[in-house]
Structure prediction request, 132 residues.
Amino acid sequence: MGTLTEQEWESLRLKAVEAAAHAYAPYSGYRVGVAAIADDGRFLTGCNVENASYGVGLCAECGLVSQLHLTGGGRLTHFVCVNGDGDVIMPCGRCRQLLFENGGATMELWTVSGVKPMSEVLPDAFGPDNLA
Ligand code: THU
Prediction:
């Protein structure tokens, strides 16, 4: 699957914005929404879910990856992450690892500096190949 048109990226961002509206973020007040496309064309979304035990809060990417597996598996091909204002933000470090596991080096992300492959967002990644 090649890159998306600007319009397709924008519609993916809007799905992430919609997901962010469902965030449970009473502690940080920072809503996050994510949206992705899988290699069979289906859309996946997620929102952050915080916890009174702060360290166990779930990033939005956790929900999205769970949804990927729950709804048939496959690979992520395109991904975007937004905050509660709808601004594109970068996935945190651990979530870059989650995305690498489920989308690999060629997955495309809309980053704060344009669309980039995962290989540029998590260079020289440790991943499944290292355990093969
Ligand atoms: N957060 C995400 O959901 N994903 C990220 O990639 C960055 C951080 C959430 C975690 C926490 O609920 C809030 O943003 C503030 O860190």
